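Shipment paperwork, digital attachment
Item: protein structure file
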Amino acid sequence: MTRKMLLIVLAGCLLVLCAACSGKKAQVQRNEGEVKEVVESAGHGDASAEYNMGVMYHTGNGVQQDYAKALKWYRMAAAKGEAEAEFKLGVMYLHGQGVEQSRYTAQDWFNKSCLHGSRMGCEQYRLMSRDLW
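Attachment content:
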């Protein structure tokens, strides 16, 4: 992964994390060149880029918001063990974004995310475990 691509992915992850922590929607404006770079990397199977594509479609930053496409990209990244993609899948199931709402499926994704190192996944899994029992 090029240094520029890594910085773009890291910046996107930080913005999403900050938005999740503050309860505000991330406002990331991507230029056409950045979007093309992410698309190219994702097309080559880069899990971080696939996750970033999911974020872009989930939030509508740089592309038209499309939950179905966000799910597709998150699932591709999650299949490679990308913890943040697993976390986002949990969020989408929890809120019924592009899928039938399911707290149990959301909790399963949060658990997978936790097992792959996502601190937010672990916290959400613990919170849901208390709520479901």
